[in-house]
Amino acid sequence: MTSLATGFARTQRWLREHPLAFDGALAAAVLVCMVVGSFADPNGEHGPKFGGRTPEVRSVVLMVLVSAALVFRRRNSMGVLIFTAAVSVVELVLGDPAAPVAMSAVIALYTVASRTDRPTTWRVGLLTMGVLTGSAMLFGSTPWYTQENVGIFAWTGMAAAAGDAVRSRRAFVDAIRERAERAERTREEEARRRVAEERLRIARDLHDVVAHHIALVNVQAGVAAHVMDKRPDQAKEALAHVREASRSALNELRATVGLLRQSGDPEAPTEPAPGLDVLDELVTTFRQAGLPVEVARADDGERAPAAVDLAAYRIIQEALTNVQKHAGTDAKAEVSVIRVGPTLEVTVLDNGNEPDGRTDGGGHGLLGMRERVTALGGALSAGPRYGGGFRVQAILPFKARTGEDT
């Protein structure tokens, strides 16, 4: 049974690959059927009688012509239908009784219906049915109500209906296949987009971690080098801060890069960066580096969603790092975290009086902050303050876009 099914599938595939061979076999089969049917006498004493008559030479020639035309039914379906229908009308008018030449017109009508749209099928089908049935009724040797005439009407109608059904099914299958292919493409594009977003997020985390800690290390190393000879105790304290900052940088880098491990690695962390719950520790590192920072919080002690919490922490970290690098040695910073209705407002101010390099477009800090805020559906404003200094303010939705509840 399996071998039979395999052979049938192989034959079907070969016929699809060689349509001209299939049409040639179909034309030969139709010719045989028409020739055999032409030997039947529909006017026998007790009904149709096989072998009661012999087809005329004209009828045989017409049957051969219409059969040969069926070989080209895929190339020019409408032309083949017109030719076979015209030849069938000739046989219906001249034959007595007529040979079943109309069988070829039925096959041609099916082909047209299966390869065109429904309105065309209706118009062509009704016209073919009317012409063939009317010719048989008006010019045939038998009464107009005989079953042969009704048979022509029925067979042409069924051919049009069957062709339209095949066309509809083919269109349905093509639509399903196209939808599946489009879904596959969309899935691949979505996967590539998610990968790009994840790479961008990791790049932002790496930038924030490296920029913050390296800036602190640079400041503390400069202090240690400056007071090494005169105040060794202060130099040792600065070096201790360097060591602490470098250790923190290594820990955060290890956590961030851990995201790139295999998903089955039990050591891979699920949350690579801290949040506002360790804001005091972050501020302490800047204070130890010589930057006075004041913090004001009015967020009701309610923890924000993970994405918002991480974004707020990174914005404060990046803004204070920029103050440390650009605002000058006598600068002071103020940080405020305020819950205002459905939003969380994070503001970092400084009073730096030196020329500010934060708006020259050469860095990625402000761009990274803006991307973080935009990804959450918030807004970021950053620019110089009136009277000197710089201001960074982020308004974050307290409920992240991902649907994570507070």
Strand arrangement, largest sheet?
A: 3-4-5-7-6
Structural class: alpha+beta
The biggest beta sheet, please?
Answer: 5 strands, mixed
Number of strands: 7
What does this structure look like?
- By secondary structure, the chain is an alpha+beta fold.
- It is built from eleven helices and seven strands.
- The strands form two sheets. Strands 3-4-5-7-6 form a five-stranded mixed β-sheet, with helices on one face. Strands 1-2 form a two-stranded antiparallel ribbon.
- A hairpin with a 2-residue loop joins strand 4 and strand 5.
- Helix 3 packs parallel to helix 5 and helix 10 runs antiparallel to helix 11.
- It is rod-shaped.
In short:
By secondary structure, the protein is α+β, with helices and mostly antiparallel strands. The protein is 62% helix and 10% strand. Helix 3 packs parallel to helix 5 and helix 4 runs parallel beside helix 6.
